[in-house]
Amino acid sequence: MAHIQTESEWQEEMSAKIVEFVRHELYMELRYLKLALSQLQLQSDPDLRAFATDGAYLYVAPEWLIGIFEKNAQYLGRAYLHTVLHCIFSHLWIGGNRDRKTWHLACDIAVEYTIDQMQAECTKRILSWTRKQMYDRLKEQKQGISAAVIYRMIENEELEQKILLQKEFYTDDHCYWPKKEDGQAKQEQAVRNQNQWNKIARQTKMEQEMRGGETTDGEDLFLAQAAAEKSRRSYKDFLQRFSVLREEIGVDPEEFDLNYYTYGLKLYGNMPLMEPLESREVKKIREFVIAIDTSYSTSGTLVEQFLKETFSILTQKNSFFAQSKIRVIQCDNQIRSDVELKSERDIAALMQEFTFAGGGSTDFRPVFSYINDLIERGELKNLGGLLYFTDGRGVYPKIRPEYQTAFLFLEDYDNAAVPPWAIRLKLEPEEFAGMP
């Protein structure tokens, strides 16, 4: 007996066709987004009244989708593009410690501004007064447009103004965005989703650049945001990767039985005998140095929060050695102090001695010379990393050190001045806000 299609099955079938139609319409005008537009897999959620995503699936209520398609098909194209751009710009994964509602609003404004600047026929809409006012404010920004910049703009807005902006820019549901309280399995999946979208963002950027010819203001804005947001990741995620402790499967020279190996060659000619490979733990970081540029005019509270977050991450179980050593060096054009942190209490004591001169330039080289001297004297036996907290204005060393080095910036910096061997990360102050 042939299966009789139910109403819900029909709705899901129609939903798939509508989404495919929407993707095609967008692709016809925005061909460089082909890979991104086809990435999300359709998943039904009857409780939704907008698109939603977690970076892997596009969640949608079939009945709602069909109803909107009948009334305003063009709106769906814009809404779908909105959700995809959140993924390309990594908005789902770089919120950090920011206020969740304000961050979501900032992301919506950033995406809507990008779409309106693209001026694609399939996504055009008339600008409301609220939208026009917001866009005028954005155009005055000297830092470029990104969700992080917009967050700082609206963070202290009155509640009524935020509600007005939320009504204006709300487009999709963020209920599936990763949360801090998610379990380990969800967090690991979120990391995989983010990595996948980082690849897509890179490929999309290449597709756009390969097209050649002149780009529109909207396309330039898209490329700038894709590049900026891809380089922004939560400090916690960055530091956990920077200080990774992993186990590699390989031959351990101290355990490998050479006699057993050569006996096999002698006995069988070309068949060595080998015991199962021993696993060897690769200890990437045992000692960690944090250099704070005191010529940089910044908030002492912010530095204290930064140190607390760093100490907390590096001393978590399974992320660092039980006997870890974390040193904090104060420096400008010379070494001012060198203190080992053994507990969070040490941070408070250290901060009482900090003096931020501000306004000056610095010389990064003395820190590297000092660390090299510590290594030669045997005081640093297994240094795996240096974190340099600075504004970036100063003299960099020309020779690459033997240990990995990351320069951490709180504001825009001259990328060309930073040595190619250095890891660089632009921090967002909001990541450390609200910490005890």
Automatic annotation (TrEMBL):
Coiled coil: none
The protein's name in its UniProt record: Metallopeptidase
Domain VWA-like: 289-427
Highest taxon above the source species: Bacteria
InterPro entries linked to this entry: Put_metallopeptidase_dom, VWA-like_dom, vWFA_dom_sf
One Pfam family from the record: DUF2201_N
PANTHER family: SLL7028 PROTEIN
Record's signal peptide: none
Stretches assigned to the Putative metallopeptidase domain: 35-192
